[in-house]
Design goal:
The complex is a heterodimer of chains A (about 325) and B (about 300). By secondary structure, chain A is an alpha+beta fold. Chain A contains 9 helices and 13 strands. Helix content of chain B is about 35%, strand content about 25%. In chain B, the strands form 2 sheets. Chain B has an 8-stranded mixed beta sheet with strand order 4-3-2-6-5-1-12-13. The chains are: A alpha+beta (about 325), B alpha+beta (about 300).
Chain lengths: ~325, ~300
């Protein structure tokens, strides 16, 4: 090796060594599987264990990616995809059914680095809507594609579409029948998951934030109804300069109050802590009559999960050793 | 105090290319919409009625990219988006990708007033329109010869002479009424040659349209994808509410710092709770008009 090269290497080593000596940058991921009325009386130990297992699988899948140096974008995609494939949650397979008996799916993903975003709404034949949202972000000049146009794009991207029957589960068909009978297009629906939506937020080693949300919306919803999940700023938002947020709850309230972006704005402009910002938007939501929850992570790796409903399926894991799965207020 | 501002799209035709007769048509269209909205405010009407009336007139005017005369998708069809927001209780309604509703802004208002939802898209939105006794029109109602030529030019990769560059044409209105209520409305056909199903910022509450009493009402026009990422309309409100920026500063920052950094251009119109009107853009021009009870009345392009 020539002298100048050796010298250059030596300089590099000296420059890099102190950086290696300090603590590795924090990693963090949080997920939710929906907020709403999860009547504790109806939650049998078996069901609770099953929900917990589903949440743990998604949380750990996302965290594993962060741990081996993967991006927050990959981590939230993996976590949400896992929840979409799990029929217990209201997204992908096992999504709630609209008035006509079909699953109509919405999803969004946002990369805090850029920031850039992709979203789809009203798709009926895409197995993992969060993956299509990601393709919209990465392979199209657009942010939001809806309905048949979104599925046309999916085909152009080489995705294999699935029949509508793929998404329908017996439990959801039963829920729809009950809802049709009472015409209760409401959060107060009896079954857990009526406002279930799934989502994830993460911070990776490179300091990038990402958020993703996916949902089937409301049981017995009007065809074409789109909630907050695929709306950038409402149900999903991420910006490396502030935080990453995913929401779940009565979507119409989240849209009107631009909830996800509001958390970031409070953090950035009012200099609230992440926990304070999340608390404040949840209070605003309650004041306006809306119900739901929010998960968020900031650039320092702080995680906040809050809700004003009876419960929220949720999980959080970080590089400081935290690993929580919970459903109700008392962290059970 | 009451006030109204409207826009008919940013990214105006280069000055040298805009023919006199066409400029007259644009100005006349803007005046009609502005005065119709203002007349409602003058006789004590609500800001919601005023923005709805102004936008409906611009939708009906084939010169602007909304309703009749909207830009066409790559398949040659019109696909329309619209949103309206009432600053009183943050009520909002929006529709996206509708193909057979003459005045999308009216359907957006109906979504706000008669459904429990905020956003309906595609065939489901039209089903709701039928349930609400709207008379649907064939898609060819929206198509004009000019827009067809524009589509063909774009598909051949040519610049169209003196039409508003469709990537940025959109119509919108913001108003403050005598009771202090704010409202905003936006309607568009989106980009010429767009992919079917593509939705821009106009029907996205917070991105292209936002109104909050005590803060401001905002309507945007421009490259929608950037306005969505920046949550542009709500950003203006948040800057006024949380950082006590003036409306002018908030609009300026959003356009010339945040959107500029992302690489997106366009325009914003806004009215504050004191009736102050701000109209700003980062493109060569923006078709716009403003009128308020203090006597100001202006129509401008550049």
């Amino acid at each position: 090796m020539s002298r100048p090269k050796l010298l250059a290497l030596l300089c590099l080593a000296v420059a890099v060594a102190p950086a290696l000596a300090i603590e590795p940058r924090p990693l963090a991921i949080a997920i939710h599987g929906g907020a709403g009325v999860i009547d504790p009386a109806k939650m049998t130990p078996e069901r609770a264990a099953s929900y917990r297992a589903g949440l743990a699988a998604a949380l750990d899948a996302g965290y594993a990616i962060l741990e081996r140096g993967g991006s927050s974008l990959d981590a939230v995609t993996a976590a949400v995809r896992t929840l979409e494939d799990d029929p217990q949650f209201n997204a992908g397979r096992g999504a709630v059914l609209n008035h006509e008996g079909d699953a109509e799916l919405d999803a969004a993903i946002m990369d805090g680095h850029g920031p850039r975003a992709g979203a789809v709404a009203g798709v009926r034949h895409v197995r993992n809507p969060v993956e299509l949202a990601r393709l919209v972000m990465e392979k199209s000049p657009h942010v939001l594609l809806v309905a048949e146009g979104a599925e046309e794009f999916a085909l152009e991207q080489g995705m294999v579409l699935v029949p509508r029957g793929y998404f329908r589960t017996e439990a959801r068909v039963r829920e729809l029948d009950e809802a049709r009978q009472t015409e209760a297009l409401q959060l107060k629906a009896t079954a857990p998951g009526a406002t279930g939506t799934v989502g994830a937020v993460a911070l990776d080693r490179a300091g990038h934030l990402a958020a993703a949300t996916s949902t089937g919306g409301l049981t017995n919803k009007h065809r074409g109804r789109v909630g907050d999940s695929p709306i950038v700023g409402a149900g999903t938002y991420a910006d490396d300069a502030s935080c990453a947020v995913s929401g779940t709850g009565q979507g119409e309230f989240f849209i009107r109050q631009v909830v996800a972006y509001d958390v970031c704005a409070l953090l950035q402009y009012r200099h609230l802590t992440l926990a304070q910002a999340v608390r404040e938007v949840i209070q605003k939501l309650r004041a306006s009559g809306g119900e739901g929850g929010v998960i968020a992570v900031d650039r320092s790796g702080n995680i906040a999960l809050d809700f004003n409903s009876v419960g929220m399926f949720r999980g959080a894991r970080d590089s400081a050793g935290k690993r929580d799965i919970a459903m109700y207020r008392d962290a059970q | 105090m009451y006030a109204i501002a409207i826009h008919g799209g940013a990214g105006a035709v280069p000055r040298a290319m805009l023919s006199e007769p066409r400029e007259q048509r644009y100005r006349a269209g803007l005046e009609t919409a502005l005065d119709a909205g203002f007349a409602l405010l003058e006789r004590g009407g609500s800001s919601l009625d005023a923005v709805c009336a102004a936008v409906r007139i611009l939708e009906d005017d084939p010169s602007f990219n909304a309703g009749h005369g909207a830009a066409l998708t790559r398949d040659g069809a019109a696909e329309l988006d619209a949103a309206i927001m009432d600053g009183r209780q943050l009520r909002a309604g929006a529709v996206a990708s509708v193909r057979h509703v003459r005045n999308p802004i009216e359907l957006a208002r109906r979504v706000m007033e008669k459904s429990r939802h905020v956003l309906l898209v595609g065939a489901g939105a039209e089903e709701f329109a039928l349930e609400e006794n709207f008379v649907l029109v064939p898609n060819r109602y929206f198509r004009t010869l000019e827009r067809q030529e524009q589509l063909e030019c774009e598909q051949r990769g040519e610049r169209v002479s003196d039409l508003i560059p469709s990537s940025q044409g959109t119509v919108g209105a913001v108003a403050l009424d005598g009771d202090g209520n704010l409202a905003a409305a936006t309607s568009t056909g989106g980009m010429t040659n767009k992919r079917p199903g593509r939705v821009g910022d106009s029907p996205i509450i917070g991105a292209g349209t936002y109104a909050k009493n005590g803060v401001c009402a905002v309507s945007a026009t421009g490259h929608g994808e950037y306005f969505i990422r920046a949550v542009a309309a709500h950003h203006v409100c948040a800057a006024v509410e949380y950082r006590a920026l003036s409306l002018q500063q908030a609009v300026h920052e959003t356009l010339h710092e945040i959107l500029a950094a992302l690489g997106g251009d366009g325009g914003l119109i806004a009215v504050g709770t004191d009736g102050q009107i701000v109209m700003d853009f980062s493109t060569e021009g923006m078709f716009r008009g403003a009128r308020e009870s203090g006597g100001r009345r202006e129509i401008a392009i550049y």
